[in-house]
Amino acid sequence: MNMPAASTAFETFMPVQPGFAKHFTDYTEHRDMLPDTPLPVLFYQFSVPPGQSGRCPVLPGGHVDMLFPVGGPPADSLILGSVLCRREVPFRPGTIYFGIRLLPVSLAPAFKIPLKQLVDGFTPLARALSIPVAIMQQIQQEEASFHRRISASHSGFRKLLHSAPCTEASVPPPFYQAIRLIIKSRGNITIAELSTVMNCSTRSFRSLFEAYIGLSPKLFCQIIRYQSAVGRLLHPSRTAFNDIISEYGYYDQAHFIHEFKKFSNECPTRWMVQLLRKS
């Protein structure tokens, strides 16, 4: 097994949300690493014009998004858990948003509520995590630059990661290895194989996975495969459905279309037409 390749895939993978760039013309992003962890993190920012509805399509990604409305009070900050199928998410018109997308694994011990309660909905950030108010104020300060907000976010993450809950209940290193294998295989790996990596029963692995991710391992694997397919479809000139079907572990075209519709609410061909229409 080529572990360096697995590590690289793990450290660079991030679920795509093409709706943000399509709906908000000033959308910008920066990929980084979560401090003191092997986890990638995506920082992004966009503004919703005053006359715009603010509704944006969001796809299942298996990650969580922290959203900070710039200029607003810390109480307005939210966490959007992974949606389970494509949905329109409302953002406030006339508002700049700073966002952070990540896997909650390393921060899981610091969460005040079970991660599964975040799935498919908005949760007030203060209800889920105890991020220092001063850090949140730095992030939401109107005159702060995008990179100043990133720097403040890193400070907040370091405080959380070195808090008592995280140090007392650190993530078992083999769990990161299990996530690496899911990413490398594009979700095409069995729960039995993953539980072997963790040296535990499949039942114990499922419980651990839900505690650190908030989703069942089977659903997470399906979402990773779907996201991998979406990433390929964003480059239609270089992609054929048959390539995705064979490379990403779908049984046949019917299986690919069925699973794509499960997460997108439409077939891949129609999804591509809608996406290109807004290009």
UniProtKB/TrEMBL annotation:
UniProt keywords, alphabetically: DNA-binding, Transcription, Transcription regulation
Coiled-coil residue windows: none
GO molecular function: DNA-binding transcription factor activity; sequence-specific DNA binding
InterPro entries named in the record: AraC_XylS_family_regulators (IPR050204), HTH_AraC (IPR018060)
Keyword Transcription appears in the UniProt entry: yes
Residue ranges of every copy of the HTH araC/xylS-type domain listed in the record: 173-274
Source domain of life: Bacteria
Record bears the keyword Transcription regulation: yes
Protein's name according to its UniProt entry: AraC-like DNA-binding protein
Organism encoding this protein: Paenibacillus rhizosphaerae
